[in-house]
Write a structure and sequence with these properties.
The protein has 180 residues and is mainly alpha-helical. The protein contains 9 helices and no strands. Among the domains are: 50 residues; 61 residues, no CATH class. It comes from Phytophthora sojae (strain P6497) (Soybean stem and root rot agent). GO terms for molecular function: DNA binding. Keywords: DNA-binding.
């Protein structure tokens, strides 16, 4: 069975190009022996191809799909952080509504006519957006921390209420059938 072709990450290509520039003297075929010693299984032809396309590789951000909202996603993240700082609830529906609004406001009529893109802030999109930006809806919105004195005072207050509730329950008879 023939070996399957495996794509090489952009960071590895950049590392190889930087080595060719700095230590390889600008000769890409020298990189094969160096990187083979490091355990890389890439032919000299691969290094030559990367060297030939080095401008695109160094300028590129990879072949991943660009976010539909682009820079508007940063604005959406800021809106979420601001809402959390105000201790207001952030829901998936709210994120979807804000994303729709930002998408509509970020595109002009001409852009929409030339390249009509349908944007739906679906559940998978919201999940991916939250993962890309390290967000979680279960994260606490209270960013302040309690001092030790405040924490102890709240714990004591809680225990006083607990004990008071236990005393009230203990005064009630457990078996009410014998009182009739």
């Amino acid at each position: 069975m023939p070996a399957r072709r495996k794509s090489v990450e952009l960071s590895i290509k950049r590392q190889a190009i930087e080595w060719i520039v700095s230590e390889g003297g600008g000769v890409p075929s020298r990189a094969e022996a160096h990187f083979r010693a490091l355990g890389w299984r890439i032919s000299a032809g691969g290094f030559r191809q990367w060297w030939h396309n080095r401008d695109q590789i160094l300028a590129g951000q990879g072949n991943r799909r660009r976010p539909v909202l682009g820079e508007a996603e940063d604005v959406l993240v800021d809106l979420i952080y601001n809402r959390r700082l105000l201790k207001e609830k952030v829901t998936r529906d709210w994120i979807a509504a804000q994303a729709h609004q930002l998408f509509r406001s970020s595109r002009t009529e001409e852009e929409h006519e030339e390249h009509p893109i349908g944007f739906a802030a679906s559940d998978p999109w919201i999940t991916a957006f939250m993962q890309r930006n390290g967000l979680s809806l279960r994260r606490r919105t209270n960013l302040t921390t309690l001092t030790d004195d405040e924490l102890v005072s709240r714990a004591v207050s809680f225990m006083h209420r607990r004990v008071g509730a236990l005393i009230v329950v203990a005064d009630k008879p457990q078996n009410t059938s014998c009182w009739h």
